[in-house]
Amino acid sequence: MSDHHAGNEAWHRQLHHTGHDELSEDTAQTPGMRRFEAISGKRNGSRKIWMGKTHVAPGMISGDHHHGEAETGIYVVSGRPVFVFLEDGEERRVQTSPGDYIYVPPYVPHREENPSPDEEAVVVLARSTQEGIVVNLPSLRAEVPELDALIDALLSEE
Questions:
Q1: Domains parsed from the chain with CATH numbers
Q2: What's the mean pLDDT in 55-83?
C-alpha cells in the first residue's frame, strides 16, 4: 500500500451513529441523576470526546461531584436546571433555561438541582475525555488536590 493510499484511507473512515433509543446507562453515575452515554471510546472508538445526556427528575438534587481532568460543555434541552458551585467560599447558583449552555472547568466541584415539582430537566453533555469521568464528593467543600495544582499552574503562567 502506498503512503498516498494509507493517508487517503485515514480521511475516509466510517461515521458512527447512535440512535436516541440506543444510549447506555453503563457509565459513571451520581445519585439524583441518570446519565446516558452516546459517544465514547468504548462505544464508538472516540479518542478525545465523550457525549451523552442526563436526566434530573423533578425536585431532585444531585450529589456533589466533579469530572476530573475533563472540560464539560452542557446544553439545556428541557426544564430549568440549576447548577451550584462554590465561588469565594459561598455557594453560587446558576439558573438556566432551555437553549442555555454551561461550561464546567476540570476538577470543579458542582451539583445539579431541578427545582421544578413536575418537569424533568434534560441536558446534553460533551466532555474532552473519551470516557465519562465522575468523581462523587461528600460536599462542594471537599478537598480536590488536582484543582489546587491546576490553579497553581495557571497562576504561575501569568
A1: 16-157 (2.60.120.10)
A2: 96
